[in-house]
Amino acid sequence: MSKTQQAPGGVRSKGLADYLNDENVRAVIYQIVAIGLVILAGWYLVSNTLDNLERQNISTGFGFLDLEASFGISESMIDYTPKSNYATALIVGLLNTVKVAFLGIVLCTIIGTIFGIARLSSNWIVRKLATVYVETFRNIPVLLQLFFWYAIIPGAFPAARNALQPIPDVLMTNRGIYVPVPVADNAYEFMGIAAILAFVIIYFMKKWADKRLDATGQPFPVFWASIGIFVGLVLVAYLAGGAPTAMDIPKLKGFNIQGGYNISPEFLAVLIGLTVYTSTYVAEVVRSGIQAVPSGQWEAADSLGLKRSVSLRKIILPQSMRVAIPPLTNQYLNLTKNSSLAVAVGYPDLVSVSNTTMNQTGQAIEAISIYMAVYLGLSLITSLFMNWFNKKMALVER
User: Fold this and answer.
1) How far is CA 354 from CA 102, 129, 178, in A?
2) Rounded CA gap, 390 and 384, in Å?
């Protein structure tokens, strides 16, 4: 240990011991050592993995994405055949994952809100039924629920020859539900563009209406005006495109149903399982959010003579959202990540397609890296959107 040096002018200079006794210096040293250990561990893992892959004659890199996939996928939102490349196959899996996650989030929010409100109902039967629903499905593992629904759905419907037809042109079989869809036409592209244009107009109209309310105190019927703009623009685009009416109707041909759009049992099992499971947690979030609103808000609404339903919709729920949004975000993230369990019932999501790709090419690290990056990206997008929404709902103090 070095001793403290005495400067010629009588000023005492710091020695090594003084620096080591300084908390800030030690903190920097510890961080440098920690980062060095992490880099060393990473270098060891990567180099060791590359050496092992080289000894097994397995090439590394993402060049396999351009190779022919040579396997079929039962459900696809884009054009795909076994002659497509692996990159296209992974995009199909990604879109299937996004489809089930998006629909699951929408449905679990609606169902969870209903059951969350029902748990606070003054009606004893409604309150108890909601409690049974929440406590039952919340305490059963989601994977078991997926197996349950996948066993129930195909067995609940007959074979294709005896398909149920609850409404005209809609067929329900043990191979899924078949619904008619419009035949592709340019008019539908025009309608999509018109819908986007309508949303832009509605957005700026809402901002104008808010400024007008602040300046004059005069409200503007934004809701009805928005419906009129949206319906009007889409209808004009439909008529301008020739008003096509051709439909692709599902019909029995041979031993199977041909035509229409097929909602497969695998997709239904995954969607119902994830929705039911997550809606129980959403229900508890909504219930706790409502209970967090001071009871004085209910009393103030009652004193104004408002109906309970109006008080709930206009006063209580908007305030409860400020409490409920952060835990809701966690539930949306959980649902998205739980969608990876779809591979257990044969739904061709990203994990299922990646596993097939990995088995055929041997590119395990690359395939796993891809779907880890995808799930990370989906979670970050969801979090960013919900954080933005949370800020929009926060109280603004003047």
Assistant:
1) 20, 41, 28
2) 10
- Paired tokens of 277: 């499971």
Q: How far apart are CA 264 and CA 303, in angstroms?
A: 52
Query: What amino acid is encoded at 338 in this protein?
Result: N
250 CA to centre of own chain: 30
197-237 pLDDT tens trace: 999 999 999 889 888 888 888 888 888 899 999 999 999 99
Distance CA 292, CA 287 (A): 9
Helix (H) or strand (E) holding 6: strand 5-6
Secondary structure (3-state) at 12: strand
Assign 3-state DSSP to the chain and report helix, strand, coil percentages, each to 5.
70, 5, 25
* Cβ within 8 Å of residue 345, ≥6 positions away: 146, 147, 150, 266, 269, 270
Hey, what are 205's tokens? 């109209």
Number of Cα atoms under 13 Å in the Cβ half of residue 277:
26
The whole-angstrom separation of Cα 151 and Cα 269 is 9
DSSP 8-state code for residue 339: G
Q: What gap in Å lies between CA 17 and CA 293, rounded to an integer?
A: 58
Sites in the chain below the pLDDT cut of 50: 1-4
Question: Cα(73)–Cα(94) distance, rounded to whole angstroms?
Answer: 12
**Phi, psi at residue 384, to the nearest 5°?**
-60, -45
What is the per-residue pLDDT for 279?
95
CA distance 141 to 132: 16
At 103-132, the pLDDT tens digits run 999 999 999 999 999 998 889 999 999 999
The owner of tokens 């395939």 is: 367
Distance of alpha carbon 130 from alpha carbon 208, whole angstroms: 42
Structure tokens at 332: 């949306």
Tell me the whole-structure pTM to 2 decimals.
0.79
pLDDT at 1: 43
Angle subtended at Cα 312 by Cα 334 and Cα 291, rounded to the nearest 5 degrees: 60
